[in-house]
Amino acid sequence: MTNQVCLDGNTAVAMACHKFINFSCTFPITPSSTMAELVEQYAAQGKKNLLGEDIVVKQAQSELGAIGTCHGALVTGALTATFSSSQGLLLMISNLYKIGGEKAPFVVHIANRSVGQTTTSLATDHTDIYAIEGTNLSVVQSANVQEAYDMAVCAHAASISARRAVAHSFEGYRVSHQLESLEIMTDDQLSQFIDYQSLMDWKNKSVASTDRPYAQNVGLGGEVAMQLLESQKHDINKVCQKFEKYFTLLKQLTGRSYHCYEYYGDANPETVYVLMGSSTGTAINAVTELNKSGVKCGVVKIRVFRPFDVKMFSDAIPKSTKVIVALDRAGELVQTGGTIYREVCAAMIQMNRIKSIEVVTGGRYGYLGKELMPKDILSLSEIFGSKNYGTMPKQFTVGIKDNLTNLSITDSPNSANFELKMLSDLVSQTLLYGIGSDGTIGAARNAVQILKNTADNVQVQCQFQFDGKKSGGLTMSHIRLYKGDDKEIQKSLHNAQYDIQAAQYIGCHCETYLNRYKTMMQQLKPNGVVVLNVDNKGDLLEYANKLPAQLKHDIAEKNGKLYMVNANKVSIDCGIPGRTNNILLLFYFKFGMTQLIKFEDAVEAMKDAARKTYVKAGQKVIDNNINAIDATVKLIDQCYVNYDVKEWLNSNISISGNEKINDYCPDYDKFMTTVLDPSFRREFDHITTKTMHEYNGGFFPPGYGAYEKQTSAVKVPKWNSQNCIQCSICASACSHSSIRPFILTENDSPPEGFQSIELKGKHEYGNGARYSIQVSAADCRGCNVCVKACPKQCLEMSDVQEELKKQQQFEWARSNLYKNTENVDGKKAPLKDLMTKNHYIEYAGSCPGCPESTMLKILTQISGEAMQVSVGVGCSLVWGQYSMMRPNTIDRHGRGISSISSLFEDGSVFHWGSVIGRNNVRSQIKQFLVDNIENITWDKNVQEITRGVLEHFDDPSQSYKHATELRKALKIDNFHIGDKNDMIFPGSLTDEQIKLSPKEEAELSQLLQKKVKLTESTFLTYVKLNNLLLSAHNNWFYAGDGAVFDIDFNGVDHILAKGDNVNLLVFCNQVFANTGGQLSKNSFLGQVTKNAYNGVSAPEKQLGLMMISAYGKHIYVAQVSFGFNRQQTISALREAEAFNGPSIVLCYSPCISHLIDGGLQNVEVQQKLAVESGVWPLFRWNGGAEKGQRLKIDGKKKIGVDEFICNEQRFMSLKSRNNARFEMLKGQLESNVAEVQERMEALKVM
C-alpha cells in the first residue's frame, strides 16, 4: 500500500532518510538545508527509524566538521547520513575519500548547486557532484521529486547491502524545492529494503570496539596499500547489481520501474542523447514528440553515475545507434570533453562498439542556472539527426548565444510550436510573477494545498524561482496541475522539468513588472486568462489602454481575457493593508483552476484557513480577512476589461532597448544597455558570450542599484518639516538609503515644489543655506523604521503613488547636492552631518528594515570614499554583493568602495590576505618612490606631486587625492567631473595606455632590476603598472555571525591573533539567516531555531569577551546596538578603524527570523530592549588605552529578559508548545546574563 502526498524534494528525501539512520551531523547550506532541519525536527518529535531507534542530529561548525563527526559516528557503529551542496560538499571531500575507502554504509544527500567560479551562484548544475568522483563514492541521481524519494530509499538500501558510501544527488531548486505529487511507502514496505545480513556483517567486522580492538586508519607504505585499495574494485563492481536488486524490489512494491541506465525512444534510433538528472525528463518529452513525426532518436538516462558500469550502459544503447550526443551540465572548460562524454567514449571503446558508431560528440548545457528546454533537443535533432556525420560539431553548447568561440547551437525555427506540443491541454499551466517577500509563493503553496485537500486524483508540480536577492527581487511560480487517470499525461507531467512556456493563466502581482517584463504575455496560451494587480482608482479600460504596447499586443494576439484589480485598495478597505495574497489567490481559483475545483469550495476552504491561521491574532483579524475574501468574490467579475482587440493588435511597439527600465533611473551607459537592461527584462538571448567577455574575470562596475526602482511599497514616508529638528536620525535608520537629508546653498536651483527649511545651527554653507529631507518613493520598501525612529514624529506613511510625484525631486537632489557636503569629515562629523554625505551604499537588496545594510551604510558614510571591503558569504553577500545591481555606488569624483569576496568558510583569511598582500606591494612602491624621488628631474611639478604622494602615502583620506593629481600631471587621467564617464573611474586607463611596446617591456624589466636609472618614460610606465595601488585603503571585512562565530571562527581567531591591522564588522542575528534561520553559536538560550526545534540549550558564545581575554591590549573589541545608542556605534566604528592593530565590532542585528511582533518596523525597539535586558551588553574595549581605562560599558541592565523575549516568537513559540521547558531555558538565560555582567565588571580593572 502506498500513500499519495504533495511534497518538495527536500522533504521527500528527509522522510525517506530518517527511516534508515540513527545519527546525522549537518551544517546548513542552500538549497540542501531543509533536509537536515526536517530530520532534526523528526528526531526532536521522537520519531524513530525502521529499527525502532531514536535519531540523534547535531549541527557542526562547518561542513568539514559535519562530515568529520559523521565519520567518527560511522566507524563506531552508527547508521549515518548528512546533507550538502556546492562548496559545502567540496569541504567534505577530504573525509569522503576516507569514508569512500572504508566498508561502511553511509549516504550523503546532495541538492546540486553550482560551485562558485567566476561568480557566486545559487543556481543548479552538476559541478559539485562531478567534483567528488575521485572519492570512490557511488552516485545515484534523481530527476524529480518521486525519484528523489525512491532513490533516497534505494541509496540507503544499496549502501547497507554493499557496505559502500553512496552520494544521492538531485538538482537544487528544480527538485529540492519543487512541489510534486508523489507516492510514499509504508514502514512495512520500507523495512524490506534493509539487508540485515549486511548490517550484521558491518557491525561485527567494521565497527571500532574494545571488544574487538582492531585499529582503523593505519598508516601504510607501498608494501600493501595499493593492493588493499585495488581489492575494493571487486566490491565496487557489484554496486550496480545491488541497485538493480532494490529497483526490482521497488517495482514489486509500487509498480515504479527503474534501472541504472534507461533507454527511452524509438526502437531503432540513429541518434541517442545521454544525460542525467532532471533534464532527462525534458529530453524524454522532446524525444517522444520527435518520434511521433518520424525522427529516429532516443534518450539514455543515467541513474547510477558511479560506478559507471560500461556493460549496463552499452546494453542500454540500441544497436542501431550511429550518433551519440553526450550532454554535461557543468562548465568543464579545460578537459577534452565533459565527464559524461568521456565516460561514453570509454564505454564504447571497452565494449568494442566504437567502430559501429559514426559520431560521439559532447556538449554543455544548463549550468549556472540555465535549463535544458524542449527546443534545445529539437535544435540538436536537426543537426545530429541529419546523417551529415562529417560536418557534425565535435563539441557545442546549448541554451546561450556563443559568438566568441561559436560553439552554440542555433535555435530551430520551429521551436515555439514544438514546445506547445509537450503537454496535453488537460494540464493546467500557470505563471505567477511576484516580488520577494510579498507572499506570492506562499499563496501559491496554499492554493495547491487547498486543491489537494478538496479535489481527488490531482497531480501537482510547482516550481518556485527567485532572482537571488534576499528580499524584493523577482519571484516566479510555475504551476502545473492535472486531474485525471491518464498515465501518459501523468508521466509527461513528471518529466516536464523545465519552465512553463505556454500558460493558461498569468498573474502579475507587481505593477512595476508590466513595464519591465514587457514580453511576459508571449508565454500566454491562446484564450488564456491574465490577471494584473494595479494601482488603478478610476476607469479600468482607460487604465488598461495605458499599458505597454508590447503587453497589449501580446494579450490581444492570444485573445487573452484580461482582469485588473487594485488588490492593495481592497486590503486597505478591509483592514488588512498590504495583505493582497488571498485577494489575488481568489482570481487564481476562479480562472486558473477551472475544471479542477469548484470556486465555492475554494472560497470556503480559504475562510477555514483564515480562521486557523489567525486564531492567535484575535477575532477582528479573522473577520477582516474573511471580509476581504467576500469583497473580492463580489468584485471579481467587475474586474474584467473588455478591450478593443483590433486596436491593441495595432499597438505601436518600440524596439527593445530604446526605452529605459523605468521613468526614474539615470541615463543608460554601455553596461546598462548591453548587459543589465536585457538581463533585467529577462531577455537573456540578447546577451552573448562576446558581450560578457569584457567581464569574464568576475569584476563588475558599481552604481547600478540606482536603475532598479522596485516601487514595491504601498505606503512610503512623507516629511512634515514643521517640527523637524534636522537630526537626520530618520536617514540613519533607513536600511535602503531611500530617505536622505540634503543641504542646499544659495547657488542651487531646486525644481518647483522642492520642500526645504532654513538650515539651523553653525555651518559653513553661507547665507541662505537650507535643509531638506527627500524620499525616494521608488526605492523605499515601506518598512516604517524611519517613522518609528523620528524623535519629533515628522514623518508619516503616505500613499506611494502620491509620493512618486516627487521622485524627480529626490533624483535631482541626489545628482546635484552632494557637492555641497563632500568636505564633511566622516571621521569627526556628528550624525546629522554624517548623513548628508554622499551615500556609498544605496538601495540594498536586504529585507525591509534590515539593520545589517543600515550598519554598512553607516560605516561607508565614515570612510566610503577610500574603503575596500571583503564581503562575507551569507546574508551580507546576498544583499550586498549578489547580482550586477549591487548597492555599491560612487560619488561625483568617481570614487566608491571596492568590494571583494571569497567563500563562507574563508572570508576572514581572504580579508587578511587582501590587506597584507596589498600592504606589502605598496611598501615596495613607496620604497621605489623614496629611492627615486630625486631622479625625477625632467619636471619639477611632477616631482612635487610625487612628494605629495609619498607624504600622504599611508593616509586613506588623502592619498587618493594625490594619486589623482599625479595621473593628471602624467596625462593619464580619464575621469572628468561632469562628463558621462561611461564605465570610467579615477583609476581607469585605456587599453592603449596600458599597451607596452617591446622596448618599454625591456626598459621596465631593467628598471625593476635596478639596472638603469629612472627616466621620464620609465617613470610613466612604472606609475601605470602600479596605477591601482597608489591609493591607501581603509580595510574592513563584514559578515554575519554564522560565518564569524561558526564556520570561519578558526580564521577569525587567527587573523585577530596575528596583530595585523584588520577590521571586522559582524552582523549578529543569532542564526544562519541566509539559509533560513539555523542554529548558530551566537543563538540565545531558549530561542527556537531550525536545528534546535526544542529551543537552544547552550549559552551563546561571548565572542567579544573571548577576544578580550585572549588578546588583551593588542586588540579593539566593541559590541554595539545602533537603535539603542547611535553615537556609541559610530564612535566604535571610528575607534576600531583608528586602532593600530586588529579590531572587531559586533552589531546586534534583529532579523525576520526572530519573528518580532509587528515585524522589522520594531527593529530599533528590540535593539533597545536587548541592551536594557542585558542579553546584548554594550561595551568598547580599547587595548591601546591605559590599564583600568580600556573597557567602557555603554549600556546597563534595567529590565528582565521577559520584556525582551515576549515580543519575539522565536522564544514564545516554545512557550506555546512546552511551557515547562520555556521557563527552564528562560531562567538559564537570565542567569547567563548575570554571569556575563560579572565577567564584564571583572574586566574593568584590566
TrEMBL record:
Residues 1219-1246 form a coiled coil. SUPFAM superfamilies: 4Fe-4S ferredoxins (SSF54862), Pyruvate-ferredoxin oxidoreductase, PFOR, domain III (SSF53323), Thiamin diphosphate-binding fold (THDP-binding) (SSF52518), TK C-terminal domain-like (SSF52922). Transmembrane segments: none annotated. One of its GO terms (molecular function) is thiamine pyrophosphate binding. Keywords: 4Fe-4S, Coiled coil, Electron transport, Iron, Iron-sulfur, Metal-binding, Oxidoreductase, Pyruvate, Transport. InterPro entries: 4Fe4S_Fe-S-bd, 4Fe4S_Fe_S_CS, PFOR_II, Pyruvate:ferred/Flavod_OxRd, Pyrv/ketoisovalerate_OxRed_cat, Pyrv_Fd/Flavodoxin_OxRdtase_N, Pyrv_flavodox_OxRed_cen, THDP-binding. Residues 715-744, 771-800 form the 4Fe-4S ferredoxin-type domain. Signal peptide: none annotated. It comes from the Eukaryota. GO terms for biological process: response to oxidative stress. This is Pyruvate-flavodoxin oxidoreductase 1.
